[in-house]
Write a structure and sequence with these properties.
single chain, about 230 residues, alpha/beta, Rossmann fold, two-stranded antiparallel ribbon, 9 helices, 8 strands, globular, disordered N terminus
C-alpha cells in the first residue's frame, strides 16, 4: 500500500508491533477480543452485579450506562471507569470464549496468520494471553491504544497480502476504512442484545453473527483470490 498521511501509532503500541514475527506474503486475520473472541458483556454484567451496579442497555455505551443498583443513579464517570478497570484487572482470564471462535481460527490459521488487536489496559495483556491460550487461541496479541486504523495499516503494509479485520466497534471500522481501505472489514458482535443496538457498522464490508459465518466468508474470499 502507498504511503498516506494519518494518525500516528501510540508510543506504547509500536514496540509490540516491532516484536511481531509476521510473514510477508501470507494473508492476515486481525481480530478484536471483547465481544469477538470473548463474551465481554456477559462477564462485565456479572462483575457489576457483584459490585452493586448494573448496565442499562438502552444504548450502545458502557461508561454512560452504568447505574447504582440501590439508588438507580447513573455512576459518575470516574466510578464507571474504575469499575471497567477493575473488571479487566480481576476477570480477564475468566471471561467465557465466544462459541466457535477457537475452531474457526484454527481452520483459518491453515491459510492465514492470526493476530489479536485489543484495546485493553496494558496491565491486562499477559492475563489476556493466558486466557487466549486456555481457550485454544494461542495467537499473538497487541494491546492497542486509541483507534485501530493506523495499526491495521502498518500491519497490512508489512504482510502485503489479503488482510481481514474483525471488530465490534463501528468507529474502528471507520478508522480502518480511512487508513487502510484495501483491508476487508468484518463487523462481528457476539452478544445479540448489543448486535441489535448497534446494527451493521457503516464502513464494514460484511456483518456476521457467528464464527462459522466468519470462517466461511474468509475461506471463500481467499479461495477466490487463489489462496
Amino acid at each position: 500500500m502507498s504511503e498516506r498521511p494519518g494518525p500516528a501509532i501510540h508510543d506504547r503500541v509500536m514496540p509490540q508491533l516491532d516484536a511481531l514475527a509476521l510473514q510477508a506474503g501470507r494473508p492476515l486475520v486481525i481480530t478484536d477480543a471483547d465481544e469477538v473472541l470473548f463474551l465481554f458483556l456477559q462477564g462485565f454484567e456479572a462483575y457489576l452485579e457483584d459490585n452493586g451496579h448494573y448496565l442499562d442497555l438502552s444504548s450502545f455505551a458502557l461508561v454512560g450506562n452504568i447505574k447504582n443498583a440501590a439508588t438507580e443513579e447513573m455512576a459518575p464517570v470516574e466510578m464507571a471507569k474504575a469499575l471497567l478497570d477493575g473488571f479487566f484487572a480481576e476477570r480477564t482470564e475468566s471471561m467465557t470464549p465466544v462459541p466457535g471462535a477457537a475452531e474457526a481460527l484454527a481452520a483459518l490459521a491453515l491459510k492465514a496468520q492470526i493476530l489479536v488487536l485489543s484495546n485493553l489496559p496494558e496491565g491486562s495483556r499477559k492475563a489476556r494471553e493466558r486466557a487466549l491460550a486456555a481457550a485454544g487461541m494461542p495467537y499473538p496479541i497487541v494491546a492497542n491504544v486509541g483507534l485501530k486504523g493506523p495499526v491495521v495499516r502498518h500491519l497490512a503494509d508489512l504482510v502485503q497480502a489479503p488482510v481481514y479485520f474483525l471488530d465490534d466497534i463501528p468507529h474502528n471500522h471507520t478508522s480502518v476504512a480511512q487508513a487502510a481501505p484495501d483491508v476487508q472489514r468484518v463487523h462481528f458482535v457476539a452478544d445479540p442484545r448489543l448486535a441489535r443496538l448497534i446494527g451493521p457498522a457503516e464502513h464494514c464490508h460484511h456483518r456476521v453473527d457467528d464464527w462459522a459465518e466468519v470462517r466461511a466468508l474468509i475461506e471463500r474470499e481467499l479461495a477466490d483470490l487463489g489462496w
